[in-house]
Every structure is written in C-alpha cells, then in structure tokens.
TrEMBL record:
It comes from the Eukaryota. GO terms for cellular component: cytoplasm; nucleus. This is tRNA-specific adenosine deaminase 2. Residues 1-19 form the signal peptide. GO terms for biological process: tRNA wobble adenosine to inosine editing. Pfam families: dCMP_cyt_deam_1 (PF00383). One of its GO terms (molecular function) is zinc ion binding. Residues 1-124 form the CMP/dCMP-type deaminase domain. InterPro entries: APOBEC/CMP_deaminase_Zn-bd, CMP_dCMP_dom, Cytidine_deaminase-like. Residues 157-186 are annotated as: Disordered.
C-alpha cells in the first residue's frame, strides 16, 4: 500500500509539466488504486476538472465495471492528494461518501477541509452526510515546492518565462518514502 503512494507526487508533477496547477491524487480501496487524477483545468478550459473530480469519475467507472455499489466501496476508500481539496472537491468527496482524505499542504485560497471553509465536517449540511475525515501532512514539502514553481511561472513580474519547460522543472526532487508514516485505515 505504502509503495503505491509513491505515485502521488508524480501525478502532481505531471500536471505541472502540462502547465497546470500541480495537484494530483489517488483513490485507494483495499490496497489498490481505483481512481487517479491530475489537475486538467487549463487543458480542458473547464474550471471543474480538478484532480479529485477526475479520480472520482475513474473510481465510479471501476465500480460500474465490477458491478459493485460505489457507496459500499467509497465508504472504505481513502483519497491521497498533495494539496488540501478545494471547497468544490471537499463537497463532492463528502457527498460521494468517501471515508478519508490524506493531503499534503494547506490550500490557503480555496481549502475545503478547514483552511477557508470546513465543508468536510461542517455539521450544518445534512444528517445523511457523514463527516469526511481530513488528515494533513503527506508529501507536504514537495507539494509546496511544486506550487511555488507553478506560481513563479505564472507571475508576469517574475524573471522566468510564463510557460515552464519540462527541462526547467525536472530537477525538483521527488520525495523518498523514507520516514513517511501512514496509519492503516481504521
Ligand atoms: Zn478542487
């Protein structure tokens, strides 16, 4: 299971290489990846094409192909994402009945796990939506580094060109899994 998480920063970096805000995620059920996503907002020109939304769609297909009820699967599925899900995604994940989100750095602009709004656990929504557990701290340092790299490229006052070339960012080190502590799902 832990080895699968090594793919997470690569998802984020793949988004960065394609000129997207570097966010990538994995949906893990019973030790296997049933959905993955990387941010595709710029490519699709669709502001809802966040990594998490793409991963949810992939996981729904996974369930359909196996003729299993998604609610049963999602209730035992965890999302691993390098940045705190935004308000939209946190809402979608909670409505989908996901068990838990493990994320990297905080999302100080749109975070839906408490940084801006606490969509994940706000009790005012409905009785039928269980709280979505949110646990920060996986690959946080790498995530911050990737985001800084992206926004440096977007800033017109920055000395760097607006569009980053692959060779400009290939040197961002990806983390090793040494020292990454992951609790087994409870
Ligand atoms: Zn989002």
């Amino acid at each position: 299971m832990t080895k699968l998480l090594f793919l997470l920063p690569f998802q984020a970096k793949a988004a960065l290489l394609q000129g997207e805000v570097p966010v990538g995620c994995l949906l893990v059920y019973d030790g296997q990846i049933i959905g993955k996503g990387k941010n595709g907002v710029n490519f699709t020109k669709n502001a809802t094409r966040h990594a998490e939304m793409l991963a949810i769609e992939e996981a729904l297909d996974w369930c359909k192909n196996r003729n299993v009820a998604y609610k049963e699967v999602f209730a035992r599925t965890d999302l691993y994402v390098n940045v705190e899900p935004c308000i939209m995604c946190a809402g979608a994940l909670r409505i989908s009945g996901l068990r838990r989100v493990v994320y990297g750095c905080s999302n100080e602009r749109f975070g839906g796990c408490g940084s801006i709004l606490d969509v994940a656990s706000d009790q005012r929504t409905t009785d039928s939506q269980p709280v979505l557990q949110c646990v920060p701290g996986i690959f946080a340092e790498t995530s911050v580094q990737l985001l800084k790299e992206f926004y440096r490229g977007q800033n017109p006052n920055a000395p760097n060109p607006k569009v980053k070339k692959a060779h400009d960012i290939q040197d961002i080190p990806l983390p090793s899994l040494e020292g990454v502590q992951m609790k087994d799902p409870t």
